[in-house]
Design goal:
Blueprint: H1 6-20, E1 76-77, E2 80-81, H2 86-98, E3 103-107, H3 110-113, H4 137-143, E4 153-157, H5 162-175, E5 185-187, H6 192-198, H7 205-222, E6 226-227, E7 229-232, H8 234-238, H9 243-263, H10 268-271, E8 275-281, H11 285-306, H12 312-315, E9 319-323, H13 335-349, E10 354-356, H14 369-384, H15 399-421, H16 425-430, H17 433-450, H18 477-493, H19 496-512, H20 517-525, H21 530-541
Parallel strand pairs: 1-10, 2-3, 3-4, 4-5, 5-6, 7-8, 8-9, 9-10
Helix pairs in contact: 2-4, 5-20, 9-11, 9-15, 11-13, 11-15, 13-14, 19-20, 19-21
Length: 550
């Protein structure tokens, strides 16, 4: 009996039905503008399927980096948090750990991210607004008070000042009696996406890349369990990049980091196993699952074919996922619980290694304890109640998901080839290529929302006068003052001569081109501040002015 073809079904069954009952849209497409058919069959699969997909724990890792995935170990539940002071943040971390979180994720305020102490004029009005302020080791000691760093994995979302914050973490661990080789965690340390999408850069690209390779080298020798970078597509997606662009720009940046490390004399297999990634989970469930599967396969191919990596771990792409902040609405904020639950499900079905679920009130303020607990409970329900953790890659073999995985991979590699032709991610970024592409994507998205071609419940459709959340997390003036007093006390009580000597040694280290991490650690242990260390680098490297591609 002849196998019935998809084309026959379209002509004989689907089209007559559409003539009687018109479809809601003329064209259905994903957020990446990939056309979505009514039906997918075996005809839509890659001719090499299933060999092209492989098995979990085996190259090309489409189906997961571990053979048994969550049946062996659940993803790390890592709720991102940082409040207006180290004291408040420490309290929040303990609260989260007490309620079942098994990893910390630190949000820093804008002055800390851009290398200014809290008493600097540039910090006025920004202390503690986007996360915890950290100016010195004294703040770090409070931040992690009574939290055993040898038993907790910590992720720090920090970029331009990443090496300084890593030094502070090493220093506070030493004060706890914890050896560096027992520390585990991640620093984001992804400066290229800052130039492209976010803006918290300080120095020009070349010295910034040098500081990143310094961390690669230092950690490889001294902090072997530490992930030295979290290459982020998240922020580019939040700025407007679609799924294809998120994959392409993330991996183009990753290629630049790998090339920089190799150029500095490092062997690819000495550091590649500690590269990690950070992706968003947007609202198109199937496209997001396909994106995560495509990402693993793409990275395995890049590392094997482009960089000739030999270690299995070098080929495995491990990633953290956060639900999409850009989809949170101030209108009808309870709807955000539903949005983030489905986005989290996408991440789990896609095989993430760790996950943060945004809180329902984050479009309005820093999240409250109540909202954070709901987000954490969302992860726990996904882990224990719905069966999503019991099967490895449960959507594998779906005609639609497999077809979408292939299309995302193909289109993302085409973008990477285009960027390669421009001289790589750094040169393309200097010419504004990625920024222009992201801005165009964001513009088209907003047009669709305004024309109601894309429905956002509670915003452009199904609008109602639902009152906003009344209880919001505020910024305590008292806590801010306490933080500033601690900084003033540290500056007055520390050994001023030792501070001068350490900063001088750091300067010599930077000027000579040697690894800056050992000198940075000496600085922070002498209570040199984040701003003082950053100023040394500013003086030597200069400051990068805003890129203006328009």
């Amino acid at each position: 009996m002849a196998v019935r073809r998809k084309e026959d079904w379209v002509n004989e069954t689907l089209d007559p039905a559409k003539n009687r009952f018109a479809e809601r849209k003329k064209i259905y497409k994903t957020s990446s503008d990939i056309k979505v058919d009514s039906l997918y069959t075996q005809e839509d699969l890659d001719p090499g399927f299933p060999d092209s997909v492989g098995f979990p724990g085996e190259y090309p890792y489409t189906r997961g980096v571990q053979p048994n995935m969550y049946r062996g170990r659940l993803w790390t539940m890592r709720q991102y948090a940082g409040l207006a002071s180290p004291e408040e943040s420490n309290k929040r971390y303990k609260y989260l750990l007490e309620h079942g979180q098994n990893g910390l994720s630190v949000a820093f305020d804008l002055p800390t991210q851009t290398g200014y102490d809290s008493d600097h004029p540039m910090a006025t009005g920004e202390i503690g607004r986007t996360g915890v302020p950290v100016s010195s080791l004294a703040d770090m000691e409070v931040l992690f008070k009574d939290i055993p760093l040898n038993h907790v994995s910590t992720s720090m979302t920090i970029n331009a000042t990443a090496s300084i914050l890593l030094a502070l973490y090493v220093a506070v661990a030493r004060k706890q009696g914890v050896a560096s080789d027992s520390l585990s965690g991640t620093i984001q340390n992804d400066i290229l996406k800052e130039y492209i999408a976010r803006g918290t850069y300080i120095y020009p690209p070349e010295p910034s890349m040098k500081l990143i390779t310094d961390t690669f080298s230092y950690c490889a020798e001294n902090i072997p369990r530490w992930n030295t970078i979290s290459i982020s597509g998240y922020h580019m997606s939040e700025a407007g990049a679609n799924a294809v662009q998120e994959l392409a720009f993330t991996f183009s940046n990753a290629i630049a980091y790998v090339e920089s490390a190799i150029d500095s004399g490092m062997d690819v297999d000495s550091f590649a196993g500690r590269l990690s990634f950070f992706f968003v989970s947007q609202s198109n469930l199937f496209e997001e699952v396909a994106k995560f599967r495509a990402a693993r396969r793409m990275w395995a191919k890049i590392m094997r074919n482009r960089f000739r990596a030999k270690r299995e771990r070098s080929l495995m792409m491990r990633f953290h996922t956060q639900t999409a902040g850009v989809t949170l609405t101030a209108q009808q904020p309870d709807n955000n619980v539903i949005r983030t639950t489905l986005q989290a499900l996408s991440a789990v079905l896609g095989g993430t290694q760790s996950l943060h679920v945004n809180s329902k009130d984050e479009a309005l303020a820093l999240p409250t304890e109540e909202a954070v607990q709901i987000s954490l409970r969302t992860q726990q329900i996904l882990a224990h109640e719905i069966g999503a953790s019991e099967v490895v890659d449960p959507l594998a073999g779906s005609y639609y998901v497999e077809s979408l995985t292939d299309k995302l991979e193909k289109q993302a590699f085409e973008y990477i080839e285009k960027i390669d032709g421009m001289g790589g991610a750094v040169e393309a970024m200097k010419n504004g290529f990625q920024m222009m592409e992201i801005h165009e994507s964001a513009y088209l998205y907003q047009q669709e929302v305004e024309k109601k071609e894309r429905i956002v419940v509670g915003v452009n459709e199904y609008v109602s006068d639902v009152p906003n959340i009344e209880k919001l997390q505020g910024i305590s003036k008292k806590e801010t003052e306490k933080h500033l007093k601690r900084l003033a006390r540290i500056k007055s009580e520390r050994n001023a001569g030792k501070v001068i000597d350490c900063l001088s040694e750091l300067r010599e280290s930077a000027l000579s081109g040697s690894n800056t991490l050992p000198a940075t650690i000496e600085c922070v242990e002498s209570y040199c501040t984040v701003g003082e260390i950053s100023d040394v680098f500013r003086d030597i490297y200069g400051e990068q002015k805003e890129f203006t591609p328009f």
